[in-house]
Amino acid sequence: MKREVQIISTKLMTPTPRKNYVRREKLLKKLETLCDYKLVVVKGSAGSGKTTICSSFVKENPEFSITWITLDKENNNVFSFWYYMLESMRVYIEEIEDIISVFQMIMHKDDMKRIIVSLINLLSKKDDITIIIDDFHYITDVDVNKTMEYFLKHSSENVRIVLLTREEPKFYVGDFLISGRLLEIGEEELKLSADEGFQFIRHTLQMDIKHEIVHGMNMLAEGWIGGLQLIALARSYHKYDCMQHVKVLNKYMIAYLSKEILEALEEEEKDFLVKTSILSYFNEEICNELLGKQDTKEMIIRLFQKHLFIINLDEDRGIYRYHAIFQQFLQHSFERLEVETQKKLRLRAAEVYEQCGDFEECIKQLLEMQCYEAALRKIEIHGQNPQGWSYLRHIPLTCIVQNKEMAFQLIFYHYCNMEFEQCTEILNTVYEGESGHHPWEVFVFCKALIEEENLQLDVLFIDEIEDMDISDVTKAIIYVELSFFLWFQERIKDALYVLDKASMLEKRMKNPYVKMGILSSLCQIKEDLGDLKECERLYNQLFQVVEQHPFLSALKVTCHIGITGIYLKRLQLDEAEKSLQHVQNDEAALGKPYLYNLMELQFLKGDKQQAKETIQKLQTFDTYQNEAFLSSLLKYAIHVDEEYVQQLDQFVPIYQQKNEKKKLRTEDKLLYAQILLRKGHIQESLQLLDDIAEFTRKYKMKILLIEALLLKVTILGNELQKYKRELLNLLREAIHYSYENHILLPYKRLDKQTQVLLMLLKEERLQDLNEGEREFLYVLLQLGNHDKENVLLSNRELEVLKVLATGASNKKIGEQLCISLSTVKTHIINIYSKLHVSNRVEAIKKATEEGIIQ
Q1: Phi, psi torsion values for 282, nearest 5 degrees
Q2: Which one-letter DSSP state was computed for residue 16?
Q3: Based on the domain organization, do 707 and 803 belong to the same domain?
Q4: Has residue 307 been placed in a domain?
Q5: Together in a domain, 751 and 822
Q6: Alpha-carbon distance 46 to 37, whole Å?
Q7: Which of 59, 125, 726, 842 fits as disulfide partner to 837, beta carbons 3.0 to 4.6 Å?
Q8: What residues of the chain score a pLDDT lower than 50?
Q9: Calpha distance 220→217 (Å, rounded)
Q10: Taking all residues of the chain, what is their mean pLDDT, rounded to a whole number?
């Protein structure tokens, strides 16, 4: 089945200005300066000439690289709007097909920013580009306006947008106004002067009316070109002078004037206009099919020549549309036809548009007649994607849930965008419609998902998804999203199972975007498990996928942020800082993941004030207002500032509520164990840590296990003689789970007592450790010296010490390291000072004992 988003090509056509149009010299000269601006806003009421002035400018200035988009109310969602934006750029971007393929697969509205970043990057390499967006007043959706504002703010200076609108744009334009990059053409400038009004009547409409009468008509219309045309047409169809009957012209008189025009036409012309008014655009073939005739071309040309508000979209292909004002009136007349006639024409129009490949228009016709079941069938065939699903908002839920596959996809789409109320509403309708019958297991899962129940549902429910008649791409994306949920529930085995399902689908599709999703999810799981080597290998694969597919370049920042997490867990702080520098100038990347990594880096470097400021930024995100993510932030915050310690008391009831609902994650339990310790509930803390250790051992969650073991060492370390054997065993186990992946982060805050235990482990149990564990122990011993004043040797001092240990003289050391003799002596003095020794023998002995050298 064809699942791709459909496009109405006529929305991307620059309207052909009518013959003998009035040259608005002043406005045309103003538009000729558009290259000096980033944003141009042409604002005026319906019929004020916005489209005409801009289309005539395009025609007269072929040297400008301009694309055109005409919007309607169906484009008022982020997916539909940006699909047309992307399509309009085919002439500029060779890789546009790849970007559109990625775009058709995204479920999260937040992912739109990545698409836009790719678009911005590709457009920056092109020559001057101007995009005219007509009827922008239809765009009221917050997400569309946010993304439009982002695109305008960050796109290069060679890209500019012209908005034709009846209202002010709903996004912020103050920056462009202040910087002098906003050009505005308002209602007053669009009004016809007396001379322009006369030219319009005499040359454009070719009506022989005296100058003084035209002047009076233009005064009555107040310079409004649409109103002037209506008066002129009404006058031409009547023997009396309409000026005697109409004292004031405003939007409330449009219906009256239009009626006079319509009733003055021949019955055949009137019938044609009324019945074709349901068409968003038309040509001879469409009209022939709709009306069951063979010769509508002559009628179209005749009506066009009568200037009846018919706009020529493509002169060569003979494609037209009605002006919105006139079409709205004609549709009032259409609604007075017999219901059966209306339905028959709408259904026929849907068939005709479907034959043309215009899914969007097909669906709109069916929805107008409330043919919901038919509309659902078309959406199922053509529109299983976010743009297609947006049409479902016009269909009653009781009808949608009859198609369980569609209901599930819609729930999942809303869930991905955190629109939980809509999810609940759909699920309630599903259960109400079951009338006692057991619904699909997948709906039971969705219900648990939305109501945040920790339901351990067998993942065999995925077999239901496997049997659904949906595209492999959609299935794969659903599996990837499910893996994140299962991972969050710490159901690692199940998360890997569904990712394996997604991987099998991807191998058949060879889809890079789906592959990125699978690898990203795997990286998250492997990092949390502590499989850092495997995670690093996966990130390298991600970088390779991005390099192979330039249209995915916006995802590179995600890879940099992700691999930073590995560096931080290994305490490779220089590498972590370099990795974050790759994305710090990319505003698209400066979200929660970036700030969280930055906060960790600041904390590990000891910059507590900066870490506190970053925590405050993180707390502005909705995510960290959610109790589910509180512990991940609080575990750092309580070590940064005393004020956060007070939040531990607020965490206690949250923990208890989660415990009752069995929604606790290991991270929550670890934080609660610290709270119990702070409150002096030692035995309760130890019991909780034992439970954590048992769970994390079972599922090989190395990092969390290490943290639990080390916290227990901290508690028992105060009674070294009593718990010596157990303490050494705990450290031995922690090192065993740490050494292979070089996990150092949990050891960063080791106290002095634990350092003593590490030395004891070296002295008494060194023979029990394998070679890798021994090396890691030496690293820990050196790590313990980092916080001691004047102890840590510089890289050059360490090099000198290693050569010194071979018995080399100062001269030989200088020759081997290519440094002067005086520099060697300086380094040796510093080494003696930092190690608190007075000669070479003592220096080598102490450095060896403390694991600084081997």
Answers
A1: -155, 160
A2: B
A3: no
A4: no
A5: no
A6: 25
A7: 842
A8: 1-5, 239-252, 786-791
A9: 5
A10: 84
Check residue 347 and give its pLDDT.
94
The alpha carbons of the chain give a radius of gyration, in whole angstroms, of 35
Same domain, 734 and 673: yes
Tens-digit pLDDT profile for residues 354-371: 888 888 889 889 998 889
In a domain, 374, yes or no: no
| Pair type for strands 129-134 and 159-165 | parallel
Question: Which residue is it, tokens 């500019």?
Answer: 160
Query: Which tokens belong to 332?
Result: 């009032």
CA–CA separation, 25 vs 23, rounded Å? 6
- pLDDT tens sequence across 74-124: 889 888 899 899 999 888 888 888 888 778 777 777 778 888 888 888 888
Answer for the pair 843, 804: CB distance below 8 angstroms, yes or no: yes
Which residues are CB-contacts of 610 (< 8 A; sequence separation ≥ 6)?
602
- Are residue 76 and residue 161 in the same domain, yes or no? yes
Three-state secondary-structure class, residue 438: coil
CB 177 within 8 Å of CB 168: no
Take residue 629 and report the two structure tokens written for it: 């993510």
Taking only the tens place, the pLDDT of each residue in 550-585 is: 778 778 888 999 999 999 999 999 899 999 988 876
Q: Where are the alpha helices (DSSP H) in 200-338?
A: 211-221, 225-236, 254-263, 267-276, 284-291, 296-305, 324-334
User: Could you tell me the strand order of the sheet in which 182-185 lies?
Assistant: 66-70, 129-134, 159-165, 39-43, 182-185
755-760 long-range contacts, CB within 8 A, separation 24+: 755/781, 755/784, 756/720, 757/713, 757/717, 757/720, 757/727, 757/728, 757/731, 758/731, 758/784, 760/724, 760/728
- Over the stretch 159-179, which tens digit does the pLDDT of each residue have? 999 999 999 999 999 899 989
**CA atoms within 13 Å, Cβ hemisphere of 656:** 8
Strand ranges for 315-472 from DSSP E = 319-322
State what percent of residues in the chain have pLDDT above 90: 34
d(CA 341, CA 349) in angstroms, rounded, equals: 12
* Number of domains present in the structure of the chain: 4
Give which of 308, 319, 235 is closest to 270, Cα–Cα: 308
Q: Which residue range forms the structural domain that includes residue 766?
A: 648-783
The SS3 call for residue 115 is helix
Looking at the domain assignment, is residue 309 inside a domain? no
Three-state DSSP state, 435: coil
